[in-house]
Design a protein that fits this description.
Number of strands: 18
Radius of gyration: 39 Å
Strand content: 15-25%
Protein name: Reverse transcriptase domain-containing protein
Helix content: 25-40%
Shape: globular
Organism: Chara braunii
């Protein structure tokens, strides 16, 4: 009890009652009678359709067979799967879908099912050539910019494109591929000039000799006997001494790449050196500096050099030349096209640094830094807070970084560590802008030394393809200017004439008559180019 509370009484646990009748039934045996059979209630057909049907043994066998087929197909590549789809008449819509479709198709064939594979309407193939021709013609007729008649396509055109369905003469079996693979065992298989569709098979000794000539025995490289970790420690210490620790953002996990060579498409006896640099400790800042150098180059006055930003800038440059020609004498328009050979491998480091110092002339105008977008395109002069993924690069730091990178350029070739002392490594992000800056510096000095002929000479250059256009000059004057132009670049560079001396303009693998560029009545010309297809280079005057 607690104070005046009534006593707490817990009731006893209730026991279940058992009636006397139940006790009697349990103890006294009685006669067992058969109960009446229950009638099965008929269900609605709609309800009966959703009843669960127990799995059949054949279903498990089908799944096991299908999984086994998928395991066999998983190791095949896309080309082999396309061949199997062609042989077994299965629609190929992708590597993953092809594995499922082929396995399902084989399972149905194995268990005697006749149903075909269901494919979506988006992947259905129209087999009637006439229907394809009508659809193509209808598509051309709906073009908004279509001028002229609608092209007519015959059945022969589509038969040539798609080939005969039952003709297997142009197919290569897997057995033939494996036979060729065994014959090429021990040989060097390399893409032909970065073309993934062509593979060149060569003797290992030929490839080894090309590697030795391009790197190890080349005068532009020196063999480094120190270990890679010692070289990296030395470069990191020099970065700290130059005050570029915050600027460079050194990556301790970085290492130097392994170089290789690719045979050129025009002449397989010549090779193109490729030097990957994606693992280097300062590769990230190299990309940012490359954007800054491109911005400095593009801010130069257009008439002071011949550099083009891209192929798309060719039309505007030719329009500018046409307007300049129309103002003065339109007679005697001639051109000379050149190809700069060994552009990256023979550039002297001293000339490169001199060109970078020259392009920093913006520093004298009060512009001390470049604002670069680290996550996309875009650069400008000004300051940044870093919140918009833009980084401010000081012009002094850019020059010190370029000097440091040219001094410490390392790579591996045939297992030997090398340091490049002449030229620019082709795999670096700064290789292309530094080369263009050096050429623009040489062209600026050439144009400034022409004197009164400055307004009669025009240049166009995209990397190593350069064209010089002269207007109203005599044969003697033009010859002297061409001789001066051929020697304006560094002595290590070789200019090879790419035209035949005629009135035909050969630039960027396109052809157009230079005399039509300054026609006063109609200066509209269409230039066909293998990369940009069709480009209007001038407009009607």
């Amino acid at each position: 009890m607690f104070e005046d509370s009534p006593p707490m009484v817990i009731p006893a646990k209730r026991t279940p009652r058992r009636s006397e009748q139940k006790k009697k039934d349990t103890n006294t045996p009685v006669r067992i009678t058969r109960s009446r059979a229950k009638l099965k209630t008929k269900l609605s057909p709609l309800i009966d359709k959703f009843k669960k049907i127990p799995g059949q043994p054949s279903t498990v066998e089908k799944l096991r067979y299908r999984n086994q087929q998928m395991e066999d197909l998983r190791s095949l590549d896309a080309l082999e799967l396309q061949g199997i789809c062609k042989d077994e008449r299965v629609v190929y819509v992708g590597k993953i879908d092809a594995i499922f479709d082929i396995a399902s198709h084989r399972t149905r064939l194995h268990f005697g099912e006749i149903e075909a594979i269901e494919v979506s309407s988006a992947t259905e193939l129209v087999e009637d050539e006439a229907a394809i021709a009508e659809e193509v013609v209808s598509g051309f007729s709906n073009w908004y910019n279509l001028k002229g008649f609608v092209p007519d396509f015959g059945l022969f055109d589509f038969q040539v494109c798609f080939g005969e369905k039952d003709d297997s003469s142009d197919r290569i079996s897997v057995l033939e591929v494996n036979t060729v693979k065994r014959e090429c065992d021990g040989m060097v298989l390399t893409p032909l000039d970065r073309n993934a569709g062509e593979t060149l098979v060569m003797c290992p000794f030929v490839y080894y000799r090309a590697m030795m000539d391009s790197f190890v025995t080349n005068v532009g490289y020196r063999i480094v006997k120190d270990q890679e970790r010692e070289v990296l420690a030395m470069v990191k210490m020099e970065v700290r001494e130059e005050g570029l620790t915050k600027f460079a953002r050194w990556d301790d996990k970085g290492s130097y790449g392994v170089s290789y060579v690719l045979p050129k498409h025009k002449d397989t006896s010549r090779f193109r050196p490729i030097c990957p640099t994606f693992k280097e400790p300062m590769v990230k800042i190299g990309r940012v500096v490359a954007k800054a150098l491109n911005h400095l180059l593009f801010q130069l006055p257009v008439d002071n050099h011949s550099n083009l930003q891209a192929v798309s800038s060719l039309a505007a440059r030719l329009q500018r030349i046409n307007r300049r020609i129309e103002r003065g004498n339109r007679e005697g328009v001639e051109s000379a096209s050149y190809d700069i050979k060994e552009m990256f491998n023979r550039l002297p480091h001293e000339d490169i640094l001199e060109a970078v110092e020259w392009i920093d002339h913006d520093q004298r105008k009060g512009k001390l830094s470049v604002r670069v977008n680290t996550r996309g395109r875009g650069a400008s002069f000004g300051k940044t807070t870093g919140a918009d993924h833009r980084r401010q690069l000081d012009l002094f730091d850019i020059l010190k970084f370029v000097r440091l990178e040219l001094k410490h350029t390392y790579t591996y070739a045939t297992g030997v560590q090398l340091r490049q002392v002449i030229g620019i490594l082709m795999g670096k992000s700064t290789s292309l802008p530094l080369t263009c800056i050096l050429c623009a510096y040489a062209e600026c000095k050439f144009l400034n030394n022409l004197g009164v002929f400055r307004k009669r000479v025009f240049g166009i250059r995209l990397v190593d393809d350069v064209t010089l256009v002269t207007v109203g000059l005599s044969a003697q004057q033009r010859g002297a200017i061409l001789d001066t132009f051929e020697s304006c670049y560094p002595q290590n560079l070789v200019l090879k004439r790419s035209d035949t001396g005629s009135d035909t303009l050969h630039f960027l693998r396109m052809t157009d008559r230079i005399v039509d560029l300054c026609d006063g009545t109609n200066v509209a010309r269409t230039v066909r180019h293998p990369v940009c297809r069709v480009a209007m280079v001038t407009e009607e005057g």
